[in-house]
Write a structure and sequence with these properties.
CATH superfamily of the largest domain: Periplasmic binding protein-like II
Radius of gyration: 25 Å
CATH architecture of the largest domain: 3-Layer(aba) Sandwich
Helix content: 40-55%
CATH class of the largest domain: Alpha Beta
Number of domains: 2
Shape: globular
Number of strands: 11
Structural class: alpha/beta
CATH topology of the largest domain: D-Maltodextrin-Binding Protein, domain 2
Largest sheet: 5 strands, mixed
Order of helices and strands: HHEHHEHEHEEEHEHEHEEHHHHEHHH
Number of helices: 16
Length: 336
């Protein structure tokens, strides 16, 4: 065999080996579709102020979706947005519901989360006073005691409401209580006002044990769904599937208003008229994180900065850009 033939055979062998290697290597598309890390359980919160979470828990939509993968679902009750954020921070849940501004506050304070979906658009908070209170204007709250839960939408509502008339938290006495305790203290006349939250607020309204001092739907931030960032990075397809189930629950609520009302009344142990009051104030038309939500939560964040309740050196626009992650839900939309 002459030298020329040897070189030809050698070159052919090199090409053959290269082809084998290229075939063996996964393409970029294949890499993107690799199987996620296996898990056997996913943990979510549910809350009386987050009605679609109650629909999911009651109807078993998520359990049905995940049973083929042998993934069980565990539900953990959350009393307020602050508790939901604590559960996410401590890795006690993987996905949780909260007010949009509560997610922002927690994120700015170092909680590694991503906000991925809008569950509902509620007017779930207002300032409530005892039914026999003589207070008629916000400015009369100066020097009064007000029950509120830090890290929640009602607390932010209180801050923004006081600011409207030139007052701050220093002008009042805040009694730090979880929402149910705040309601009870209002009824017992142990506080002058309460930064209320539905459905507890609806209970007080319906029983006429309290009345609204101030309402402002624009001071309410959205009911959002957030995921632990680490969990989302490890299980992106699973997060998208969970959001698809949230969509199923939201659409079920829209399509079955009577059953939806009965379900919420049952889950929250409320009388039908009380549950109805809450749901009348809870819109279901939003599901995507858009400029509308960004503007709303930005204003709330800046109000907290002005009140020195949030890191004043943090750029709120940047924080929200880092917090909001629409890719999980966009993937769902692209597949439907």
């Amino acid at each position: 065999m002459d030298k020329k033939q040897k070189n030809f055979i050698y070159a052919g062998a090199v090409v053959f080996i290269a082809l084998i290697v290229l075939i063996a290597l996964p393409s970029k598309k294949q890499k993107e579709n690799t199987t996620e890390e296996k898990i056997t359980e996913i943990i979510l919160d549910y809350a009386n102020w987050s009605p679609i979470s109650l629909v999911l828990k009651n109807q078993g939509f998520l359990e049905e979706e995940l049973k083929k993968d042998n993934i069980s679902v565990r539900w953990v009750f959350s009393q307020g947005s602050n508790k939901s954020m604590e559960l996410l921070r401590s890795k006690s849940i993987d996905i949780g519901s909260s007010a949009g501004v509560a997610a922002l506050v927690s994120f700015v304070n170092g909680n590694p989360i991503e906000t991925v979906y809008v569950s509902s658009t509620p007017e779930w908070t207002a300032l409530v006073i005892p039914s026999d209170s003589k207070i008629t204007e916000i400015k009369e709250l100066k020097g009064k005691t007000i029950a509120a839960t830090p890290g929640t939408d009602p607390y932010v509502f209180l801050v923004r409401t006081l600011s409207e008339v030139g007052l701050s938290l220093e002008d009042i006495k805040v009694v730090t209580l979880q929402h149910p305790d705040g309601k009870n203290e209002l009824i017992r006349h142990r506080v002058d006002a309460w930064a209320g939250l539905d459905p507890l607020m609806a209970q007080v309204e319906y029983s006429r044990q309290g009345k609204f001092l101030y309402r402002n739907v624009d001071f309410n931030s959205y009911n959002v769904i957030s995921v632990r960032k680490e969990f989302g990075e490890k299980h992106p397809q699973l997060v998208t599937r969970v959001l698809a189930v949230y969509e199923k629950g939201r659409q079920w609520a829209i399509d079955h208003p009577d059953e939806y009302l009965e379900l919420i009344a049952k889950e929250t142990k409320l009388d039908i008229p009380v549950a109805s009051l809450m749901l009348q104030r809870t819109g279901l038309s939003d599901n995507r994180l858009t400029e509308k939500q960004k503007e709303n939560i930005t204003k709330a964040g800046k109000a907290l900065q002005k009140a020195n309740l949030l890191d004043v050196d943090k750029n709120i626009d940047t924080a929200i850009s880092e917090l909001f992650n629409t890719t999980y839900f966009d993937k769902y939309l692209n597949n439907n």
